[in-house]
Design a protein that fits this description.
The chain is built from seven helices and no strands. It is an all-alpha fold and 293 residues long. The longest helix is centred in the first third of the chain and has 83 residues. The protein is elongated.
Length: 293
Amino acid sequence: MDLWDAFFVWIDSIPAVIWSGAIGALLASGMSYVGIRSANNSSYKRLRDQHVHDKLEADKQRSHDAIQKEEDRKAAIRREVYTKAVEETHAALGAIGGFPFKPLDFSGNTDSDALQVFLKANSKIWLVAESEAAHLSRDLANKMSEVYLLALASAFPLRLALDPVWELNKKLIHAESEVLRKSVKLADLAEQGADANVIEAVQKAWKEANDLVDAIKRHRAHMREALAPQQLAYSRKLIAEMEPLQKTMVQLISSLRKEIHLSPDEAEFMQQQLDMRKNVLALFERLFGPAPA
C-alpha cells in the first residue's frame, strides 16, 4: 500500500461526528475571520476618513489663523499710522493758530516744519487706509496746505509789527537782571555797614533800574494793545477759512474710526465741531463786539 492509499484509509477511519465538528469549527473560524476582516476594514475606513477630515479642519484653521494674523498686523499698523496722523493734524492746527505770536524766522525753515510733519504723517494714511479714508486724507492734505499758507501770509504783517516787542522782551530780561543784581549789592552793603553815601548811590541806581523795567513793560503793553485789532481780525478770518478743513478732518477721523472697528459717529462729531465754532464766534462777539461787515 502506498502513502496516498494509507492516507485515504486514515481519513475513512475518522468518525462522521468528528468530521461534523471539524467542519463546524472550520466554518466558525472562517466566519470569524471574515467578520474580523470586515470590522478591521470598517475601522480603517473610519480612521482614514477621520484623518482626512482632521487634516482638512487643520488646514482650514491654519489658513484662518494666517489670515487673522495678517489682519491683526494690518490693524496694528493702521492704529499707529492713524494715531500719529491725528496728532500731527492737531499740531499743524496749533501752529496755524500761533503764527501771529511767533517771532519771524527769515530762513523760512521753522515756519514750514509743522506742515511738513503733517504731510508726512498724512501720506501714510493714503498708503494703508481703505479707499474712502485714503481719498479724504488727500482732501485734508490739500485743504491743510491751503489754510496753512494763507495763515502764514496773513500773519506776516502781525509778526513784523511784533518784532520790536521781542526786542523789548530781551531788554526787559536784561533790565530785570540788573534790578536783581543791584538788590543783592544793596543787601550786601547794608550787611557790611557801608558808608551811607555809597548805599544811597546804589539805592538810586536800583530805583532807576526798576523805573526802566516799568517803562519797558508799559511800552510793550501799549504796542500789544495797538496790535489787538489786527490779531482779532486774523483770528476771525482764520475761523472762517478753517471751516471746510475742519469738516474734512471730522469726516476723515470718523472714517478711520470705522476702519479700526470703533463707532464712527460722524454726525455727532460734526455737530460738536459746528457747536464749538458757534461758541467761539459768540465769545468773540461778547468780548470784542460784532465783526465788521
